[in-house]
Amino acid sequence: MKRYVKRGFSPVTSPFNENGDKRTVMNKLLLGLTPGEYLVQALRNPFNWVLAVIFAIGIPVLIGRFYYGLAWATSGSYDYPWGLFLGFGLFAMVPLSSSGFQLGTACEIFGRHDLEPIERLALLNGLLGYFFAVMYLLADLGQPWRLPYPMVVSFGPAAVLFLVAWHVATYLSVQVLEVSSAFFEWIGLPAGKAAVRRITLGLTVAGIILSTLHQGALGALFTYAPGKVHPLWYSSSFQWLHFFVSSLPGGLCMVITVSTIASKMMTWRGDVRFHKSLERCQISLAKGACMGIATYITIKLIGIAHDNKWSYLDTGWGQWFMLEIIVGFMLPLVLMTYGAHTKKIGIVRFGALLTVIGVVLNRVNTAMITFNWKLTEREIPPLREFIISIMLFATYIVVYRFILYRLPILYQWKAEEAVEPVTETEAALEPLPVRSRDGLPVGSYKSTTRLD
Amino acid sequence: MKRRNFLKACVIGGATITLGKTNKGWASGSFEGYPEAMGVLVDTTRCIGCRSCEAACNKEQNLPEPETSFTDKSVFEENRRPTSTAYTVVNEYEKKASEGPVYRKIQCNHCNEPACLTSCFVNAYTKTKEGAVIYNPKICVGCRNCMIACPFNVPGYSYESATNPVVKKCILCYDTRLKNGRPPACVEICPQEALTFGHRADLVKLAHERIRENPERYYDHVYGEKEVGGTSWMYLSRVPFDKIGFDTTLSNDPIISNVKDFLGMVPMVLSIWPALFSGIHLLSKKEGHDDHGHHNEPGQEG
Question: What distance in Å separates the CA atoms of residue A2 and residue B218, rounded to the nearest whole number?
């Protein structure tokens, strides 16, 4: 791609090509290249070859998992019923996807419009993270075709998982709507975009509620197993808060990391607005993440003090715990505070990456590594389980990249003057008149309260 | 079940502001089992480790034949747990004790307030009035949360099946025997009368009577009388229970009482958050600046 751009090619940013004709969907899909050119740039990208190898191995194994059953593909353990698919795929992907609701809140609720260049990326990051968490779940469920059962066939409303199922399903649809405005721009349906714009505030508030609850609910799932999770990773009173609060810096730092990768690997795709404001936005996010991490470390220590678990710190598990909290949370807190203060973006980005690793490690520790700490034998998932997990993650990257290449996430769609009747600025403020007409602020969020 | 209905109302209702946390007091641990619930008392001091209960269970539940026969004592070399092909197993403990080893039969304990039941998001489990915890394979999605939740590590899962994997565990012979008032197969076959079938309430009395009459024969505790809210299967032992593989760190509260803090918080968030965040949104909007909101305040940070 770099070579084409060097030769003077500019990728699709508007519904019209250089001659002023309307582009076809096919033309937009190919980024304005001819099929031949597109294929050449795809083959030239070494990362695609890595992906090809992963899929060549992974897809047959995934098919095998459904053909031969879970026992063939996973450890099929009675003591560790949740393996990598859930321990990594579900429990780690979801906190890294909390970015959608946070940036939505910052921009739409708190009016931080200076963060808008990165808002859509955060929303997309949220949507894809959740979507692939569900993909991991489908790979793990014994009978995935029964996934809609808790919605339609039989209800277990006292179960935390019931909440998770409902909230993730509702939140996924909320996120699809939030991201859809980018899609409507790209496909050329301004009416759709305007309709979504009108309910943005409702969607954002719904996003906050659903996120608070199910990020917390994922933690609360472990309160069913008070003796099995190691005491240092468990707190009967605060488990849901630990999961919820740590998901906040997790999501923000994931956006810092992804936007860094995107700005380096697909420089051509970002527009001037994105590249100019990237560092400023990342530093803002890092500041938010620092607040989150500081709070998380505090409530984590309160959790230990609350149940007086200090003595566990002096064990092997305790050292592992301290490694997680120092390298995954305390160090990034120091790095990002310093980096944000001195505007050293490299340090901020490194701190963000460490936080992402810290959050993932925390979830994997809770769900797998320290789970069943009283049992003498530990189980290491078999190779096929790793292969499927890696392949699903590769699919996540491919879909992520596919969308970033095309939809106006990192750049602004230039169509206002010709096609769209409303400009970006006016459209963004659509919700306001609707609300002020109602008088009571709560009155207009019927759609929100109805969700549950 | 009164408490389940309470939770139902709590989670679905959303508007139960006055209920929430205050009700935790009466709600937790209030269900002490059905009055007519049956149970089994296991007197480990009588068990000789003959494994005939394992064989009877295998036959009654039509389970696949095991690799070695039920008379094979070499299985005692390792610590076994119930699996999808063996709903009950007998383990040997205190192998070097002068009074001889202690044998302990493991199966589903049929809790009064089962963790598997409360953790199931499709309600696949039922605690019957006879005391059995039974399972409906037709609606199980296969999330295996019940296996995470079970404090006794009992449920097994038929991972080998690609099209219809289900949870496999002891159901107290509910379909074939208990429903008709007959004791489970393992109890009926026991040659040592180590297993006593009866009303749970009577068994609690019987257990304490045995301890009182023979204080030197028994450790003074009935395991399962109070653990995790009480179980239908209860145990007597010569030695402290942690020496024969029991988890003695379990609380007397049912597992669900751990989760209630969170469940009580859910309707609060549902009712408070919309107003709170819409309110903040209104407050953060300046009067008369409505149409210049975007791109105008890059200076605000932090």
Answer: 80
Q: Could you give the domains of chain B?
A: 37-256 (3.30.70.20)
Tokens of B172: 């107290």
Fold type of domain A46-432: Formate dehydrogenase/DMSO reductase fold (1.20.1630)
Helix (H) or strand (E) holding B89: strand B89-93
**B98 CB-near residues (< 8 Å, 6+ apart):** none
Residues of B in contact with A228 (CB under 8 A): 148
State how far the Cα of A63 lies from the Cα of A53, in Å rounded to an integer. 16
- Those residues with Cβ within 8 angstroms of residue A74's Cβ, 6 or more apart along the chain or in another chain: A65, A83, A84, A85, A140, A381, A382, A384, A385, B159
> Considering CB atoms only, which of A105, A114, A163 is closest to B298?
A114
Going from the C-alpha of A439 to that of each of A436, B22, B265, the distances in angstroms are 5, 34, 29
Give the span between the Cα atoms of A16 and A64, in whole angstroms.
46
Instruction: Compare CB distances from A78 to B124, B141, B157 and report the shortest one's residue.
Output: B157
A404: nearest Cα among A251, A309, A267, A216: A267
Measured in angstroms, the CA of A339 and the nearest CA of chain B are apart by 14
Write the burial class of residue A327 (CB in 10 Å: 0-12 exposed, 13-18 middle, 19+ buried): middle
Q: Considering only CA atoms, which of B261, B252, B246 is closest in space to residue B113?
A: B252
Q: Cβ(A203)–Cβ(B94) under 8 Å? A: no
What is this structure's pTM?
A: 0.85
Q: Do B148 and A82 touch (CB under 8 A)?
A: yes
CA–CA dist A147, B50 (Å, integer): 43
H, E, C per residue of B20-76: CCCCHHHHCCCCCCCCCCEEEEEECCCCCCCCHHHHHHHHHCCCCCCCCCCCCHHHH
Tell me the three state secondary structure of residue B167. strand
Q: Using the beta-carbon criterion (under 8 Å), do B277 and A228 form an inter-chain contact?
A: no
Sole residue written with tokens 């795929």:
A89
Query: Domain ranges in chain A?
Result: 46-432
Query: pLDDT 10s digit of each residue in chain A, 452 long?
Result: 777 777 777 777 777 777 777 788 888 888 888 888 888 888 888 999 999 999 999 999 999 999 999 999 998 889 999 989 999 999 999 999 999 899 988 888 888 888 988 999 999 999 999 999 999 999 999 999 998 898 888 888 778 899 888 888 888 888 998 889 889 988 888 888 888 888 888 888 888 998 889 899 999 999 999 889 999 999 888 899 999 999 999 999 999 999 999 999 888 888 888 999 999 999 999 999 999 999 999 999 999 999 889 999 999 999 999 999 999 999 999 999 999 999 999 999 999 999 999 999 999 999 999 998 888 778 889 999 999 999 999 999 999 999 999 899 998 888 654 444 444 444 444 444 444 444 444 443 444 444 44
Give CA–CA dist B293/B286, Å, rounded. 9
Determine, for residues A209 and B273 on separate chains, whether the beta-carbon distance falls below 8 Å: yes
3-class state of residue B223 by DSSP: strand
**Tokens at residue B11, please?**
């989670």
Phi and psi at residue A416, to the nearest 5°: -55, -50
User: Could you tell me what percentage of chain B is helix, strand and coil, using 3-state DSSP and rounding each to the nearest 5?
Assistant: 35, 15, 55
Q: Cβ–Cβ of A108/B281 closer than 8 Å?
A: yes
Contacts of B113 (CB under 8 A, 6+ apart): B3, B29, B31, B127, B228, B229, B230, B254, B255, B256
ipTM of the complex: 0.82
Q: Least CA distance to B269: which residue of chain A?
A: A209
SS3 A180: helix
Asked if B247 lies within 8 A of A374 by C-beta distance, the reply is yes
C-alpha triplet A377, A378, A384: angle, nearest 5°: 130
| Residue B36: other Cβ atoms inside 10 A | 11
